[in-house]
Amino acid sequence: xxxxxxxxxVPFTRESLEVMEQHSAKKPSEEGKEDxxxxxxxxxxxxxxxxxxxxxxxxxxxxxEDVDPYYTNKRTFIVLNKKRTIFRFSATWCTLSPFNSIRxxxxxxxxxxxFRLFILVSVLTDCIFMSMTxxxxxxxxxQNTLLGIYTFEILxxxxxxxxxxxxxxxxxxxxxxxxxxxxxxxxxxxxxxLNFISVFRIVRNLRILKxxxxxxxxKSFVAILIHCLKKLTVVIxxxxxxxxxxxxxxxxxFMGNLKHKCLRxxxxxxxxxxxxxxxxxxxxRETENFYYLEGExxxxxxxxxxxxxxxxxxxxxxxxxxxxxxxxxNFDSFGWALLALFRLMTQDYPEALxxxxxxxxxxxYMIFFVVISFWFAFYMASLFLGLLAISYEEEKQTAxxxxxxxxxxxxxxxxxxxxxxxxxxxxxxxxxxxxSSTSMITSLDALxxxxxxxxxxxxxxxxxxxxxxxxxxKTFLIWDCSPCWLKxxxxxxxxxMDPFTDLFLTICIILNINFLALEHYPMSLETSNILSxxxxxxxGIFTTEMIFKIIAMHPYGxxxxxxxxxxxxxxxxxxxxLYLTNFHGLAxxxxxxxxxxxxxxxxxxxxxxxxxxxxxxxxxxxDLVLLLFIFMFFSAVVGLNLYGSNYKKHxxxxxxxxxxxxxxxxxxxxxxxxxxxxxxxxxxxxxxxxFKVAGQFSCIPFxxxxxxxxxxxxxxxxxxxxxxFSSYKPATTDEENDEAKNLQRAMARIKKGINYVLSKILCKxxxxxxxxxxxxxxxxxxxxxxxxxxxxxSNTQDFLKDKEKSSGTEKNTMTENESQxxxxxxxxxxxxxIASEESDIENPDNKEIQSKSGDGSSKEKVKQSSSxxxxxxxxxxxxxxxxxxxxxxxxxxxxxxxxxxxxxxGRGPKKGKIWQNIRKTCCKIVENSCFKCFIGLVTLLSTxxxxxxxxxxxxxxxxxxxxEYADMIFTYIFVLEMLLKWMAYGFKAYFTNGWYKLDFMxxxxxxxxxxxxxxxxxxxxxxxxxxxxxRVLSQFEKLKVVVSALIKTTLPTLSVFLVCLMIWLAFGIxxxxxxxxxxxxxxxxxxxxxxxxxEVMNRSQCETLVFNESMPWENAKLNFDNVGISFLxxxxxxxxxxxxxxxxxxxxSTDVNMxxxxxxxxxxxxxxxxxxxxGLLLPLSMLIGAIVxxxxxxxxxxxxxxxxxxxxxxxxxxxxxxxxxxxxEDSQKPVPLPENKFQRFIFDLVxxxxxxxxxxTLICFQAITIMIQSDEQSPKINxxxxxxxxxxxxxxIGECVLKLIVFHCNYFASGWNIFDFMVVVFSIxxxxxxxxxxxxxxxxxxxxxxxxSRIIHILHPExxxxxxxxxxxxxxxxxxxxxNISLLIFLIMFIYAIFGMYNFAYxxxxxxxxxxxxxxxxxxxxxCLFRVTIFAGWDGMLNAIFNSKWSDxxxxxxxxGTQVRGDCGNPFLGIIYxxxxxxxxxxxxxxxxxxxxxxxxxIASKKKAKTLSEEDFRKFFQVWKRxxxxxxxxxxxxxxxxxxxxxxxxxxxxxPNKGQLVAMDLPMAVGDRIxxxxxxxxxxxxxxxxxLSMEKVLSEMESGFTLANTFKIxxxxxxxxxxxxxxxxxxxxxxxxxxxxxxxQNDKNTSxxxxxxxxxxxxxxxxDSYIDKAEGVSIIQSPI
Length: 1680
Prior knowledge:
Distance between the termini: 44 Å
Structural class: mainly alpha
Shape: globular
């Protein structure tokens, strides 16, 4: 903010320059001491605040003295243009003088706004020329003109700013470096005789980036992103490290495997022919001898493992040919393996790589892909998101601070202006008084009029429109001409503003939306007429509404409301559509009907909130969006210039017909689409095409640049949107607009009317209403009396008053618990109390309760003693009480519950003793822990039994019989458990618990499945057996917690989900209008390709083809023929699965019943681009933002070491603390020092940092030896690698032996040492085992992989890189929550896998369902669902399930080994199956990301806060160990200064610190030693300050340290550091006085006196050094 007394604007003169030079010469040291910073409001590019006064015309574009005090002595001056924009220049020796006429002229040119606009227009024009492939004739001349403009700009900047690299010089700005380099290279390439055309065009593309410095917002975002990149450096290094390690593992597992193919084994008469071809019958390169599946381009892969793909009869699996995908997919070298792993991490077309590896190596290696594609990709994405979120929060915080300052400044501006005006008037008045008194009165009046008119001008300037417009509006747009008109206006106003009118309009809008969604293809004429008539009716209704509102509100008032303007546009569009529909080419106007959908937003508060949030976010992020677009434009132009000509020359390499595919870079539009596709995550297939036309080395850098920079921009934009939407709160009643309130009033009136009618009909009940209410109140009091102790009810009036006061809160709590009955708190016990109504026990008198409640001092409600486990009365506990109950020791809680239950049940007469004992026994049984464990085990067994019921169950008779008996047993057990709970709890308590309702449903499923087996007509009931697995949810607390947390975070977002669904509905309706009936095509049945347009042009020609009788006019399986299938197509586009096929069909579409043509409608790509941006990015950010908001809202209020997590149980809180302690503390226990000198030497060797570095270097070299390997390398290299591995094994054995010699048994106390020992053992085994059993049984790469596992030492928290440890910390701390969520994901996968086995096991194998991925067995079903979880080719599986017609499948096909017939799918069931699974898993995975990112933010917030964590204490004691190696808990006072300087912040104290340490007044023991607890307490008090709460913390720390260190040596402090300092100073004074006294006594000569003085000075220096040592003794005591 500007200074309160701003410096006035002064021209920059020679005297100003001299004053600056004098100041800089006189006070060079004082400048460094001044703590001045540049003023943010006076930065370059900002407008000068008005507080500095008006800018005279004479000062425009002229040098002025710098108004920022920071630059007072920096030899700078400023220049302001007409817009008051600040430009800062340097006035030092390396430039022309500021008073030089040439420099002044260039400065005037540079600061002129037209100059910047001119350069911007030139750059934009140049960008247009760069995107053109065919230049006009005048193109070269125009390019020379642009080059001249850029050269002129650089000359102007060079003269105006000066040639230097300092601040405010030309080369002090990196953007000027870019301009200068590009322009210089352009001149060289243009006029050089060498051929630089291709390089010139590429370098010239950098000119596009010149737009960035011309926009201050984009320039600032670039700086922010560079700052983010610096933070992400460690994450990038960690990512590369993991990718390299996994690539090496992939090389060891899969090297050469993808070359294994099924080769036709030659017969006896064919051997000679094959030998003549290849010379080797086992390695045949001819592709016709390989086995191909139908419709596949590449040969079938195979493997020698039993779970790998097997060759058909007559074929042998051999290593032959090239790798798949034209040799680009393999693990034969480190580079290709790294590319494959990067592809898996980014999850681009991973399903193809899965199939290739599983076919060639076996299904067991799916574990490798699960780790890479799910956990590794999830962790890396979480790291990037977490650090980006931290950086964005920091930028947001700084921006908020600036905004508050700017707001204060803006508020003070009018006051300052008014003060200036009044000051000016006062000065003028004084001057006029001095001059004359005759004309004073008239002058003063004129002056007052001038000030008043000036204020009026200020007010008018703040108005949005000119004054004449308001006069026109008042005259012509406000209709109040006659009384009759006003009465009509009032009458219409009452009608149009009535609540029932808004309700009627809302119903009309909903009906109109339904009419829009009913359009489909093919549609009958009758349906079409009904829809068109309905459209006209709705247009009439909306037109009438508009007319009525204009009459009621006047045109001026009507158009003041934004929603009214929107409604009028819709009406005008509807009327225009009625008249222009018949015109050719204007039918696209129908698509704009979808705008009527968003009229619901007027009556929908959620839509209003989201719309406002979105508008604010877009305004704030417009520069970032523009930056992303510029990067995409730049990448598209670079791709066009790099590869455009190559696609034209080598098009035959990628297409047999030498025709360009849909995706290429031959022109700008396709290049832009290719960049967009890369940013969407699909890049590997276009990269393969780029390899074929341009080579590998030129394509990979371009693609990596687009992926990395583009993903960073998109992630930052996505996070910014999420954080902006995370402030979403559901609309309250006060925030609702009048229309929404009118709807509520209308519904309230309708409800009131219905109640009135019912009360008239049921008049009899009305007469007895009072009696009923009296009875209810009596019962209510009795129930409360029975549920409370006698001491509570001793005063009836007080009790009733308390009930009235707490009725509101209790009612809210009860309704919340009832509405979320499936959300039991993790801390609430599952015991259910007995209701007094359901029990036969009566309590006339209860001595036990009277004795317990006799103490009248207890005023709290005794909830546990008032009812037992067998009661059905719902008792509401507060959250603190629930947490307390769970944290109570288990045995005490059980004893307490038993006592209360026995006391409650044991009361009553003998009449109900039998029934009472039965219920008591049942209650004890169901509450017994062994019974619960037994039920849990039976639940797991019954769930696991479902996995055996695959397609082979009929062939396994024994297993089938066992499963049938097991089902009966499980059913009986669960029915018995249900009956026991009914007896124990009663029906009311049982059926009011959500989890028991779930158990009841599962029991019904068991019973129905048994009934279905008994009768043939009820056999479909067996298929619902998969619901049995739901019982697992109610049996395990971890799953309960996750489900309840998910419900809490997602259910409140239902309104946001509906808004997102409304957006999708709009795009679906537009898709129906654009593409309905246009995806049909005529297919050649022999080749499966589409007929060219030259042969078939329409449907009639297709059906007349003779050979096409069996394959008529076909529609694409995913199309836009109706809204339902449009939603499915859009879902595939949103998940980027099958979206390329959908887009290609849309682009090729022509018209209804017309054959598609290649890229006939190319600009239909824009529809899908708009959907991905508006229909995917924005709704996804809305949903995730709302979930994050609910996540914040429903955090557990009890702090778990500063953080909270709603996805862990109470027991896991302790695990969380233990895990945090494990991550922070030193895991390695201290090892006693050996007494032997030789062992001591070895100990020092193996524990030194150098030895650790040597071992790390060996590990890295061993990894490098694997990197240099490749498939089919020479035998010499294999031999060399064998001996190299042997050397590594020997070295690791030596390390192990040395540590065993030193540590003895303590060696195995560390997990890292055990791991190293196992590596040594297995490496020795792997080294010699192949020599004994052969290399065919044991892979030679086994030893390398075993040795490579030691690379995990880089992640060691102490010996490895600490930066990696900080990145692993959030993941490890969120591990308990992630494991709970993973359990739920696995359960969902299990349920869906069983459902898939029951319904899709016999689907025809094609598209995405094959031998590896199918629903025949439980394992293969889980593989399919894993693919769906990560969006890996689920569209192919759905396409296979879509085969339900006779032309696609055979419904009568005999499946061997089973009675099921047919291989057709069920499209409707398949859609529900996949869509529901995708929504559920995505919802859960989003919460997983939120958990980890929140942990990142939690740790970052703790670092910012002035608090101390366990990590700070851990680091303190680690440093203490270095200064106290013998663990005496004491250090010498002389080491205190070095110790304090060696600590990490915030306990760190920089040197010189001796004075501060002495001032802490630390206790000292004998020998000038200081205890660690005293130092830690003092440093903690220094960081946290001094207050009452701090004293409590320090006392707790001291007691905790005492308990943790029972062996602490007791000591008596003899002094303190401050006293010792005082003693030392006193002693020094006494010594000097005594010496001076001795000197006066001795009569010596003058020379002796001088020598005595010199000795005294030397002695004083020594004493001072001793005092300094004594100063550093008092700072080192504090608790853990």
